Amino acid sequence: MTVEKTANAPFWQEKSLAEMTSEEWESLCDGCGKCCLVLLEDEEEGGFAETSLCCRLFDPKTRRCTRYQERKTLVPDCVQVTPENAGALEWMPQSCAYRRLAEGRGLADWHPLISGRPESVVEAGIAVSPNLTNERKVRARHLWRYVTGKRNEET
User: Fold this and answer.
1) Whole-number mean pLDDT of the chain?
2) Burial bucket for residue 83 (CB in 10 Å: 0-12, 13-18, 19+)
3) Looking at residues 128-152, what average pLDDT do you find?
4) What is the pLDDT of residues 39-72, one digit of tens each?
5) How far is it, in rounded angstroms, from Cα 41 to Cα 32?
6) Nearest Cα to 155, choosing from 132, 127, 129, 119?
7) CA pair distance 125, 153, nearest whole angstrom
8) Is residue 35 within 8 Å of 92, Cβ to Cβ?
9) CB 52 within 8 A of CB 58
10) Among 141, 140, 121, which Cα is nearest to 130's?
11) Residue 39 vs residues 53, 108, 137: alpha-carbon distances, Å
12) Kind of pairing, strands 48-54 and 58-59?
């Protein structure tokens, strides 16, 4: 992706994902929490189903990982989003800033870097529910009971 530089443009418009500092990269996360939901892959029809279950390290009230720096060690299948994979992770929500920028779509108007308000994610209906169930409380054979819908509604 070629990024055209303009005077006084915000960093996400001036830099590619690979050129961003770690602070800039982390600030792209809107805190919606959708990447921490348990997803079920539909192997017959393709795609993914969202559930009302969250990762064992996720706090749905704050919409943050409780052990962010250690998450890869504690949850080995946790996928770290990088500039290299941001546009290729088909399970990532369409609303994700990393995915949007990787696809050349820019940030949504509700994104905190645009709105200046972290609560705009909740107001736009993008944030996950604070009432999610932790995956540790559910047996694998019961996961289907928590399906809420298909992943990747257009936002």
Assistant:
1) 91
2) middle
3) 93
4) 999 888 888 999 999 999 999 999 999 999 999 9
5) 21
6) 127
7) 12
8) yes
9) no
10) 121
11) 8, 23, 16
12) unpaired
